[in-house]
Specification:
This protein is of the alpha+beta class and 189 residues long. It is 44% helix and 25% strand. The protein starts with 6 loop residues before the first helix and ends in an 8-residue tail after the last helix.
Length: 189
């Protein structure tokens, strides 16, 4: 018989297995949603936080593409970024967008995407990180609505009304102030 020392090969194999286990543990226990996505947009691998965020099981998400669950009005911008990344114009991108939860409600997310390339530079797949920002977006929308309501209310006051900051600059001027001074209220700001 012929014998050969395979110690180095076993050490490399064990190191590779340990590295893969570390990646899997980090991927699965990340505090935000993560996905490995094919160049065509199919979910190849998803982590539990992403499944929980969108209401799907891992196998269900892996049958879908990101296009399937993206809010239609957000798809064009997302695909434009994907094209830029694939062409090498940008290394990654980040955007706020909406996904559909499995039960149909909208989930606002902050999406960060980068591409993994092979040794030859050709794109292999995307890595996506997905953070749920639904509560923040709802708060922003409510705040904007309240600001519009307040602005409308202030403009409805028939007497001139102004507010200045600590530096004595106008920060609020109603329409009655503009009429009183015979110039557009916006000129004061």
């Amino acid at each position: 018989g012929i014998g050969s020392d395979i110690t180095e090969r076993l050490q490399r194999d064990n190191a590779l297995l340990e590295s893969e286990a570390r990646f899997r543990d980090a991927f699965d226990s990340a505090p935000i949603g993560m996905a490995i996505v094919s160049l065509a947009g199919r979910c190849l691998q998803v982590n539990p936080p992403l499944c929980q965020m969108l209401g799907y099981t891992g196998p269900e998400l892996e049958k879908l593409t990101f296009q399937d669950i993206t809010y239609p009005e957000d798809l064009e911008a997302d695909l434009a970024f994907v094209g830029q990344v694939l062409r090498g114009e940008i290394p990654s991108y980040q955007m706020e967008k909406r996904y559909f939860h499995k039960d149909g409600h909208v989930v606002w997310v902050l999406l960060s995407v980068s591409v993994v390339r092979g040794q030859d530079g050709a794109p292999l797949h995307f890595v996506s990180q997905v953070q749920d920002i639904t509560v923040r977006k709802q708060t922003e929308l409510e705040l904007a609505a309240n600001r519009r309501f307040l602005a409308d209310l202030i403009d409805a006051v028939p007497m001139p009304l102004t507010v200045k900051d600590d530096n004595r600059r106008f920060v609020l001027v109603n329409e009655a102030t503009g009429h009183f001074h015979q110039r557009p209220a916006g000129d004061f700001l």
